[in-house]
Amino acid sequence: MTTQQKILDIEAEIARTQKNKATNAHIGLLKAKIAKLKRELISPTGAGGGGKGEGFEVKRTGDSRVGLVGFPSVGKSTLLTTLTGTFSVAADYEFTTLTAVPGIIRYQGSKIQLLDLPGIIEGAKDGKGRGRQVIAVARTCNLIMIVLDVMKTLHHKRIIEKELEGFGIRLNKSPPDIYFSKKDKGGINFSSTAKQNELTEELCRSICHEYRINSADIRVNYPDATSDDLIDVIEGNRVYIPCLYVLNKIDQITIEELDILYRMPNVVPISGRDMWNLDELLERIWTGLDLVRVYTKPRGAIPDFSEPVVLPRTARTVGDFCNHIHKGILKDLKYAIVWGASCKFSPQKVGKDHVLEDEDVVQLVKK
Q1: For residue 203, which of 183, 236, 239, 178 has the smallest C-alpha distance?
Q2: CA-to-CA distance for 318 and 309, rounded, in angstroms?
Q3: What is the pLDDT of residues 125-135, one digit of tens each?
Q4: Radius of gyration of the chain (CA)
Q5: Considering 87, 224, 295, 335, which has the largest number of Cβ atoms within 10 A of its Cβ?
């Protein structure tokens, strides 16, 4: 029996099982079994269909990476060509793009790598249509744009989300605030700082038993955590990526229908062919990537506003700034002089742990 068939059998058993407090532990055990089997699909031990493929080894360039994911013939190639000027074959038939095609968006002084990935189909996470290779590249992106045909929005959206979820990608979510630590003895110790409706000590024991974990400390720091959250923490191979839903071909719908679509979260309606609403798309990409621009100032000269150093908001200290320029600068740093929003007063003399804000100006002083 194949791994995929085992997963389908367990999913069928979950569907047959009545959900109540008495069956919670059993359902959690089955979900843990599915997660372990899906791990084999994500990282197959043999040379299966999920291996590396020609055209999928794309070198990371620029300050950040954005991936275009979607069904065939939804306008991904047209969008890449329009935003970056990089030619990607576009036609009216499916599977025009067979490899990952990169391009560069220059916006707000940054260089953003945009990848046009081949169209995925239902069953992509199981290897159909080179789907594993496509989704594996999507895991390396800082932002995913799911491009949808506006006439088939909800149906295609559900399918693509399911395929990405099955490959360990969590869209527009934060990692669960669950403390999990294995130990040598003492059993399973479960505690929670907030009310839990699903996650109980019995359920945690059942899930840990499937992973052959006999002793561990588990502390949940938010209300209504689920068994899926705990499984994600134990697995440890999930990636949490912001996502935009790009609804293409809005020239085919009415203004009233467009107003309804705008109420959906994380949605940007556009027309790639007519170049409608691309300014808002670029602004939403920039917001989703959450980048910080820092300008350099040589001693005795004016700041260089033409080429900012672009840092992720999660790593924007003066030390990160130095390492981004060159790994050897930090060891010779005496202090930095900073102008901008991060300072109590401008200019301010700071150390390597000072946290920078967008459009700060930095002058480095060596020992």
Answers
A1: 178
A2: 11
A3: 555 556 677 88
A4: 24
A5: 295
